[in-house]
Amino acid sequence: MKNLILFITIIFLGCTGTLNEESEFQFNEISVSYDTDTEELEIKTTIENISLIDAIDSVWAELYNCEGLVISSVELESAYTEIMSQSPYEIKYTISELPYDVYTVKFSMQDALGNLFSEFSEPKELNPIDPSTESQPSIIISYSMFEKVNGTYVEIIDSVTLDDHEWKELSFYLHVSDSNGFSDISHVKYELKGILEGCTEDTNGDGEISEQKIWLDYHDGGTPDHPWKFNFIDYYSVNGICEASFLYEGFINLRPRDGSAHDEACDEDGEFYSGCAAEDCGKVGEVYLKFIVTDSSDEPTVIDEIRLKIGAPTS
Questions:
Q1: What is the DSSP letter of 297?
Q2: 116 and 144 belong to one structural domain
Q3: Is 304:155 a contact under the CB 8 Å cutoff?
Q4: How far, rounded to the nearest angstrom, does the alpha carbon of residue 155 sit from its chain's CA centroid?
Q5: Are 117 and 147 members of one domain?
Q6: Where would you tag: which of 160, 255, 264, 274 has the fewest CB atoms within 10 A of its CB?
Q7: % of the chain exceeding 70 in pLDDT
Q8: What CATH code is carried by the domain that includes residue 49?
Q9: How far is the CA of 17 from the CAs of 32, 61, 106, 266, 291, in angstroms?
């Protein structure tokens, strides 16, 4: 199931540009939606006229698909003709049988002096393959695990070794498909079970030696500051063609063998999450991971029994 190609082929499909800092105009409240029943595409934006000196002459939008091809170009309309600090522009028009894809809109405007300004929207999927009443469960297509070594990501097969003194960051990547679309996925998280051995001495001087930890069942050990969840990275594409599938990334930090605190995790009061305080040791042992995708279907999609052996440094 592990898939190195998944990690290598992460592609950011678009960007939301900001106009030059010296620009007199700013695109705000960008909105793009498609009604599958009426087959109407609605595009909206509000343009902020910062200086209130120059008037807006014209505003138009170009719809790009995942391949970067222009699907349509249309002029946006406004009910106002005078110079205003906030000018709403919008258009609603029919595009019959708009295919599922991840679309980006380029908003452009020209002021009364002929100056041109433009900005891209965030990529957004329109017309999911199955947007109807039937809720289909998500599918975990593949997963992969990596550790960061000297700034380079190295794939983990089923084991990782603690560092003597430095915290180690592990990354989990999921490729998830859902025919109901990205918005149908409510959250993606991970849990673990297993045994981590106890420490051998009171390294942090608290009068106790940390004992082993045993989790017979999968549990979520995340905190509000460090939840055990995956974050959406991007829509998945092959040769520029977007599919109804998505890439997610999760992180977990492993304490070094000497039990050191994670200095960057501490705020001014010395508290942020449990990694802030030193412990007797970074524990070793064997755990099993479970990845969970929850959507509108009756049951979450799960892949589990992913073995991860955590070993002590050999030096």
A1: S
A2: no
A3: no
A4: 20
A5: no
A6: 264
A7: 87
A8: 2.60.40.2060
A9: 16, 14, 10, 33, 34
- Residue 279, domain extent: 139-311
The answer to whether the beta carbons of residues 153 and 147 sit under 8 Å apart is: yes
Phi first, then psi, for residue 9 (nearest 5°) are: -95, 20
Q: Are the C-beta atoms of 8 and 234 separated by less than 8 Å?
A: no
Q: Rounded to whole angstroms, how far apart are CA atoms 24 and 4?
A: 46
| pLDDT tens readout for residues 105-133 | 999 999 988 999 999 999 999 987 765 55
212/148 Cα distance (integer angstroms) = 26
> pLDDT for 283-315, tens place per residue?
999 999 999 999 988 889 999 999 999 999 986
Tokens for 31, please give them: 């909105």
In terms of C-beta density within 10 A (0-12 exposed, 13-18 middle, 19 or more buried), how is residue 136 classed? Answer: middle
- Do residues 299 and 201 share a domain? yes
CA 30 to chain centre: 20
Q: What angle do CA 238, 239, 243 make, to 5 degrees?
A: 35
Q: Which amino acid is at 297?
A: S
Concatenating the DSSP letter of every residue in 205-256 gives -SS--PPPEEEEEEE----SSS-SBEEEEEEEEETTEEEEEEEEEEEEEE--
Cα–Cα distance for residue pair 188/305, rounded to 1 Å: 17
Tally of structural domains, the chain: 2
Gap between the Cα atoms of 162 and 283, Å rounded: 9
